[in-house]
């Protein structure tokens, strides 16, 4: 019982998501709007790739080129920040390509003799989109200014995220000044 691209496409259909199937590989590409994350084109969106590997026995859900940082003076701050985020979150990991500086967020796991469920896929996608909105400012400060993320940085990001959510909710019900 492996997982197939057709099964993943069916789950994405159930979630009402738009996607593109790659005809030459067992891969699907989708994307999501974000509140805080800004990609390299200046858009508030994250591209997510879902790749089925090992004859359907392994799945990868990742955001390619989520960030980019060719080797430079802030490498240590970036690596420390990414490792701290990985430590604080479930399932999420980062990959860094030292050849071109690509940083991608990734969730990957074996399916083996089981079948991927809709809830598993939805959680993998939500972990990556949450990362973009929740930790973007911390990652960007590491890349742009070389600021190493510490506990205070994460508390500040949490506060800013909740404050932004409250402001959005107030605006939705007509209470914003």
Q: How would you describe this structure to a colleague?
A:
The protein has 177 residues and is α+β, with helices and mostly antiparallel strands. Helix content is 42%, strand content 25%. It contains four helices and six strands. The protein has helices at 5-14, 75-88, 118-145, 151-172, and strands at residues 19-22, 27-33, 45-53, 58-68, 93-96, 102-110. The protein has a six-stranded antiparallel beta sheet with strand order 1-2-3-4-6-5. Helix 2 packs antiparallel against helix 3 and helix 3 (118-145) packs across helix 4 (151-172). The chain is globular, with a radius of gyration of 17 Å. The mean pLDDT is 88.
* Helix-strand string: HEEEEHEEHH
- How far the N terminus sits from the C terminus, by CA atoms, comes to 56 Å
Shape: globular
Strand order of the largest sheet: 1-2-3-4-6-5
Mean model confidence by pLDDT: 88
Total E-strand runs: 6
Features of the shown structure:
177 residues, alpha+beta, six-stranded antiparallel sheet, 4 helices, globular
Summed up:
42% of the residues lie in helices and 25% in strands. It has 177 residues and is an alpha+beta fold.
Helix and strand layout, with pairings?
Layout: H1 5-14, E1 19-22, E2 27-33, E3 45-53, E4 58-68, H2 75-88, E5 93-96, E6 102-110, H3 118-145, H4 151-172
Antiparallel strand pairs: 1-2, 2-3, 3-4, 4-6, 5-6
Helix pairs in contact: 2-3, 3-4
């Amino acid at each position: 019982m492996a997982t197939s691209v057709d099964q993943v496409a069916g789950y994405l259909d159930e979630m009402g998501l738009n996607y593109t199937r790659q005809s030459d590989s067992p891969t699907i590409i989708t994307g999501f709007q974000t509140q805080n994350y800004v990609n390299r084109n200046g858009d508030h969106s994250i591209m997510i790739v879902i790749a089925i590997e090992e004859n359907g026995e392994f799945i990868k859900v990742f955001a390619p080129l989520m960030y980019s940082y060719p080797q430079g003076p802030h490498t240590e701050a970036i690596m420390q920040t990414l490792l701290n985020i990985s430590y604080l979150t479930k399932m999420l990991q980062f990959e860094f390509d030292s050849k071109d500086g690509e940083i991608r967020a990734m969730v990957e796991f074996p399916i083996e003799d089981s079948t991927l469920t809709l809830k598993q896929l939805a959680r993998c996608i939500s972990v990556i989109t949450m990362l973009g909105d929740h930790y973007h400012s911390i990652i960007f400060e590491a890349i742009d200014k070389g600021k190493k993320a510490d506990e205070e940085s994460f508390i500040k990001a949490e506060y800013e995220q909740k404050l932004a959510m409250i402001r959005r909710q107030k605006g939705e019900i007509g209470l914003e000044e």
